[in-house]
Amino acid sequence: MSNPQEPQPVPPAVWPQQPQPGHYPNPGQYATPDQYNTPGQPPAGGPFGLPGQAPPAGGRKKLWTILGIAGGVLLLVILGVVILVNVVAGPTNHARGLADNFTRMVIAGDTATAYDNYLDPALQEQVSKEAFISGVKTLEMDDTCKPTYNEVTAGTTNGTKSADIVGLITCDGGKNIDLVYRFEGKDELKMVNIKIKPAA
Fold first, then answer.
1. What is the domain partition of the chain in residue ranges?
2. Lesser CB count within 10 Å: N end or C end of the chain?
3. pLDDT in tens, 106-121
């Protein structure tokens, strides 16, 4: 039996204990990040090398620069598409709107107003208002008639705008009426040619 006054041997200090591969420190022990690293690996830490270290300021600046350039390019693409649609589709849509308004007035029987508002003075000299009204009446259109436009083209030549519209008015009972319009003008488009006749 040992003498109680003799000093007891103290085991060598083993803290922090190096975990075995595939094992974690004993419960209650606290491991440092270095305990989980294998030799040759940098110590574990924050996402940028050291715990709690913020990303470099130059990295944020570069990110914002890239995002700004990408946003600018996207804005230019959208602006280009809008301009292209307005340049190409704008005159065509305007011509389609003119043709649609004129045709709906004629179908509704408001032929005198359609004549006054849409026909060019040169065409009015060739076709009197009375002849125009009586010619439309012979087509016997009613509220079941609906226009469709098969071809709408618009352009500008030497400062003069023009639009050609080809379509069909279909009515209940199988009645079909061909239509061909031509609009011209510098500032305002007016009808310079018109053909409305029963389809062959």
1. 84-198
2. N
3. 999 999 999 999 999 9
